[in-house]
User: What shape does this take?
Amino acid sequence: MKALNRRSFLKTSATGALGAAIIPEIKAGENVNLASVQHDIIRRKLGNTGIEVPVVSMGVGRCDSPAVIKGAMKLGINHFDTAYVYQGGNSERLLGEVLKTYPRDSFTIATKIKTCNSKDEFVALFYESLERLQMDYVDILYLHGVDSEEQAFNVTMMEAMKSLKEEGKVKHLGMSTHRNEPEVLQAAVDSKSFYEVVLLAINFKQEHYPRIREKMAEAAKAGIGMVGMKVMAGGFLDKDKTRSVNFRAALKYVLQDPNLHTTIPSMINLEQLQDNASVLTNLELSDQEKSDLEVAALDAGLYCNGCGICLNTCKKNLNIPDLMRAYMYTYGYRETAKAKDLIVRQHILNNPCRDCMECTTACSKGFPVSDRIADVSRLATIPNEFLS
Amino acid sequence: MKMSISFRLINISLAIMMAGTLYGQTTFPKIRGWNLADSAKRYDQETLWEYIDGAAESFLNYDFRFLEVMEYHRTSDEYIKAEIYHQGSGLQAFGIYAFERPEVAEFLDLGCEGYMIYSSLNFYVKDCYVKILSHQEDEKTLEAIRIIADKLSQSIEKEPEKPALLDLLPDYEKIPRSEKYFPSNYLGYSFLNHVITAEYLNNDNRYSLFILLADDQEEALKSLYSYLKQTKTEKEPLTGEIYRVEDIFNGLVVLTVADRYLLGILGMEDADLATEFLSQFVEYATQTLPR
Assistant: This one.
């Protein structure tokens, strides 16, 4: 089964066989009626911003073709993410050139500027962005590349951003982060609505994915909009780039969490746009995608490979592999009912590790076994009707 | 015996020097009033993202090999950064340079081509894309940036030459510094790869000429076939035949295969004029293009 799954990951081109899309194909020479597609697009509210975004938006960092942006608009992908630094400014210029032919309220734009030495410098860079975009305002301005609470609360940058919002040049403020996501999410919550949106790296490879999701839940309660990037985790599962990511599964995986409002995968050609767009109308993971994710989870640190080394090392003789799978079902697929089933089969009613002073369990993958069991065993007491 | 040891030491030194050259270790110039960092930081294909985040993908698309970053400090807050992106070839270095090049800047006679905008100076030379930048914009800093750029350019290649393939685009009506190289996804299509293009101006009509550089005629025809199929232009791709395609995302595209190249014109409003221009382009190109 593993060999088969691995083979399914060895898709050298994600655009070929997967092109049998759920949505109508974009054909450059014909006027496709996409009204029905646009009607079915899954959209989510971006926190308290009042903006509704499609679950798949467009990252324009690498795109250099007007055709792809026009195609995105045609499909109903109308949120675009760029940055002052992308392509030396040509990303913003391209967006400006293409989108000037569309009504301003038919799309939303997010751009980013890195921390500067002064308020004036930050404001000047922002105005340059506006000029490139040929727009009067941007919908979201992110402070680019925030890694810590300290950076988030840089007073000078906050003053600069605030002044731009007061001038009406920015509708909403946010932060983007590539690392320390839980800390940055917490900073957004603590900012008491100063930061309304967080653009965060999120994908199946992150070992701290469960912690990110916990923080996202808190941020969602505070009305923070959340946008996912790096969803494909580099596009490959291995360093040698021989095992490519099942991109649809990767997208759907993170979007299982309703607190993630949209994603911004990079789209550089029409085929990629079409493939990504297939997720717009259907977030359900197919059996194949699930099994692909199991292999992906192996790399992500969620997947228990059932080596059995743990079986005789637990003082309580728990079936550790089953409990590790339950953990994966919970945090990987949000299949909590399935997870609970694995737990109650062992007659577990509450944390079975609570009275062990020290965990003696061996794990070839180095999982924090007792922590995971303590976490996931809480499902045992939750009524089935509340589980997914 | 002593002689032999000395000789060995010299050999080892030479080997180290050669290794430095082989692995592209650049000697960064010293500038009066500025202190160099002890050594240049180095990033490879795996670690580039740590330095430039998402922008790394674009560099990788242009066959990025490794990056050297040297910092010059005047005070603890005042610095200049010199970055040398080593790409796979001169064409790839040009490609990433042109990918980031703005239309308006102070263009400089530096390396193969360069420009300065505010306190950032970018140029390409040989297979390197060089970026020198600072947060300060005072005269002394700008002067230092220019000196570093000039010395680096000289040390990388004394007599810089642009990639020869760029000469294949005719000069007539060409907008200066509008040439670009697309290693993939030209016009948004995954099958239009390895394309050089430039923009032209005919009266007020801005248009582009492009050449897809295929390995052989069969590959050129295959690219044409894919494009005709994608645009639902139900025609058999033939060498020498001129095709007019109404591409809803890219406008009117007129194209043909000549020799082992797919040549085309887009952005021209008048289809007949576009066809005539393409014919002239083909004539020019077939005389100039390497076979």
Observations:
- The first strand of chain B starts at residue 35 and ends at 36.
- The radius of gyration of chain B is 23 Å.
- Chain B has a mean pLDDT of 88.
